[in-house]
Design goal:
The chain is of the alpha/beta class and 341 residues long. Helix content is 36%, strand content 24%. The chain folds into two domains: 2-111, Enolase-like, domain 1, CATH 3.30.390.10; 116-340, Enolase-like C-terminal domain (TIM Barrel), CATH 3.20.20.120. The chain is built from twelve helices and 15 strands. Bound molecules: magnesium ion. Magnesium ion binds at residues 182, 184, 209-210, 234, 254.
């Protein structure tokens, strides 16, 4: 099995403001697996705050390349993916790039898209939210107007109460589209968080993602008992084994390929979350249509999709899932459903 990779820098259309940072690019790594003349595509997208970089990914992918060179049968995911995971701790995005490329290869080799292999109905792919980062009132207004095809807006909050209220008020001046809120751990005081959620609940907000720091488990459980809106874990849940910790603390989990090492684990996380009666959101980083289309293959299984990563960038080097009238529309192409531009 032949693994190739090259660095790629995703250029954002707008500066992207979060509770603790603002950026204009995202480092990524494009990966290809080639066996018997069939190429599977994968991608690692690595926002800097998560600790991976093109340099760390290159080191990991070199090790993986040596390991994969000795693997004859890419269909043996149950052997290969745990072995890749065991090559080094961490590196979830680099691991996801390999997992995505292997899934793409298998689907292409079989001539079948993964949503079909999983038995899913593509007509049940959900609408995706569109993210509005923290910004000035003028820019928030502009971004909101640009997002009119989306049925749900995801709003980044968590800097301070004044800025948070300004963001929501500004959006509500322009549209009454439903909103989801991502505080990115920005609310540190549970009484303040509770007041903010009550204020939001009166403004057509559907849910709150990661209101408090992940270390504040007891405060989050306290908040959940009082919150009129469902609380969804993002930073608090990375991988399969973390799902059980969300049970009783959150109402749902946000699963992302770049956190959880790829499609194989993401699929299991969805099934475990369902068994524990947790809601499921499928999220992303800023990513090309490669990783977004891979995640979209799972989207008929989830309650909410937040798969706008490819429309936030201006140099998407893949075509794949389309967003039509705000809804994810899966191509019939095999594998993860992508073509290189
Ligand atoms: Mg989030």
């Amino acid at each position: 099995m032949n693994l190739r990779f090259q660095p790629y820098t995703l250029e954002l259309k707008h500066a992207f403001g979060l509770a603790a940072s603002t950026r204009t690019t995202t480092p990524a790594m494009l990966v290809e697996v080639e066996v018997d003349g069939v190429i599977g595509y994968g991608e690692a997208a690595m926002p800097p705050y998560l600790g991976e970089s093109q340099a760390t990914a290159a080191v990991f992918l070199e090790r993986a390349r040596d390991f994969l060179a000795g693997c004859a049968d890419p269909f043996q995911l149950e052997e290969i993916i745990p072995a890749i995971d065991a090559l080094a701790l961490g590196n979830p995005a680099a691991k996801a790039a390999i997992d995505i490329a292997l899934h793409d290869w298998i689907g292409k080799r079989l001539g079948v898209a993964w949503h079909r292999l999983w038995g899913l109905d593509p007509a049940k792919a959900p609408v995706t939210s569109f993210t509005i980062g923290i910004d000035t009132a003028e820019m928030v207004r502009k971004k909101t107007l640009e997002a009119s095809i989306y049925k749900i807006l995801k709003v980044k909050l968590g800097r301070d109460a004044e800025s948070d209220r300004m963001m929501i008020r500004t959006i509500r001046e322009v549209t009454d589209q439903p909103i989801t809120i991502d505080a990115n751990q920005g609310w540190k005081n549970r009484d303040d968080a509770c007041r903010m959620i009550e204020w939001c609940a009166a403004r057509q907000v559907l849910l709150i993602e990661q209101p408090m720091p992940k270390a504040q488990v007891d405060d989050t459980a306290w908040l959940r008992a009082r919150s009129p809106l469902p609380l969804i874990a993002d930073e608090s849940v990375q991988r399969l084994a973390d799902i059980k910790q969300a049970h009783g603390v959150f109402d749902g989990v946000n699963i992302k390929l770049m956190k959880c090492t790829g499609l194989r684990e993401a699929h299991r996380m969805i099934l475990l979350a369902r068994a524990l009666d947790l809601k499921v959101m499928l999220g992303c980083m800023t990513e090309t249509s490669c990783a977004i289309s891979a995640a979209a293959q799972l989207s008929p299984l989830v309650d909410w999709a937040d798969l706008d990563g490819a429309v936030l960038i201006k140099n998407d080097c893949f075509e794949g899932v389309l967003i039509v009238e705000g809804r994810l529309t899966l191509p019939a192409w095999p594998g993860i459903g992508v073509r290189k531009r």
